[in-house]
Each structure stands twice: as C-alpha cells, then as structure tokens.
Amino acid sequence: MKYLFTIIAALAAVSILSAPARADSPITSTPFHEAYFDLAIVRDALGSGVLDLRMAQYLSSPDVPIDAKVAVINALGWDIEGKHNAELFASYLALSRGWSLYEVDEERLAELTDDELCCLGYLAMMDDYFHPEEALPLLELANEFKPESLTIRLIYGLAKAQVAFDGDWAGVWPAIDDAFGGDELVVDMRPAAVDIILEYMSLYEEYVE
Fold this sequence. Notes:
Blueprint: H1 4-11, H2 40-48, H3 53-60, H4 66-76, H5 85-96, H6 106-109, H7 114-127, H8 136-145, H9 150-165, H10 172-177, H11 191-201
Helix pairs in contact: 2-4, 3-5, 4-7, 5-7, 7-8, 7-9, 8-9
C-alpha cells in the first residue's frame, strides 16, 4: 500500500522516458478487445485512443462487468510516446468523490473498488509499458480484493509478464499460467479474449526451464 500514493501523484505529471521501441511484448501484442467489438464503447475507444467522460463512467460503474471494462482499456491502446489515460481516470475518480488530487492518500485509495483499482493500474500500464512495475501495486491490490476473477488475474499476470520480459523470459509464461490456478477461479472473460492472450503468451513457454 505504501507505494500507491506515489503512483497516483505521478499520474498527474506523467513523463515518458525515451526507450527503444518494443512493439512486440505482452502488453502490446495482446489485443483481446477484438473479442468485444460488439460493444460500441470498445469501438469508440479504439477510434479515439483517449479516455473521455463516458468511458471513465463506464470503467467506474458497478453495473459493468470487469472484462468489458478492461476491453475498453485494451482498445484505448498504447503509444511509443506514452499516453495520459490513467491521469484522466485518476482525476475522474478523485472529482467524482469530491477529492482533490492532492488529498488522495492510502486511506482514500482503499475506498476504490477492485474494478477501479484494476482499471487504474491497467491504464497506467498501457500508458507507459516501458515501466510496468509502476502499475503492479495497484493490480496486486485489485487481485487481493477479488482473487477469484480470471480477468483481474490475467491483467495482473500481463503486468508481471511485461516486467519479466525486460529481464528474464523464463518468467513471462508462468506469470500468465499462474492466473489459472486455484479452486475458486471465476471465468469472467470471454473465451475468445482469453485465447488471444494465450496465443501470444504461449510463445514464451519454451523459455521455461
């Protein structure tokens, strides 16, 4: 929890550091939003690439399933120069609760739902996929709040896989494979979306010793 305030504060002034292009990676090569093209908001997100008010409300709504929410984020996409969608969502979360961005602390972050934590973390990861470790605390907390959700497990797994991708390819596949363990698993993502993730991630299975 101690890192969460730092993460939110940083979202208000995102600075993308220069780095070599990595168009082939766990974050950039898993376009599972394609399994949700029947949702108009997913198509809109793909077309604009920028989070708007309607999308922020969608991500925060308790009536929208988590897989549809992360499909919107996946459709918003990534950019080699970075994006600022996490900053926009953090601002929405603060203003919708009557908070100042400068008043967001660990206690208030604990008031966010597991879905909101997952969405905020995933947005941060898509915004700056060169530094996925910055999103890990948020996604880890979302996973702790809702450990039965396959969707949240897979998003958390993609973040861990992206971290491993930069240092140890042997850790890429296990980060995703671990998402399917446990007796209380709830499959809350469309099979076609899961297949898109696994189709790419399985390429790294051969690196596991």
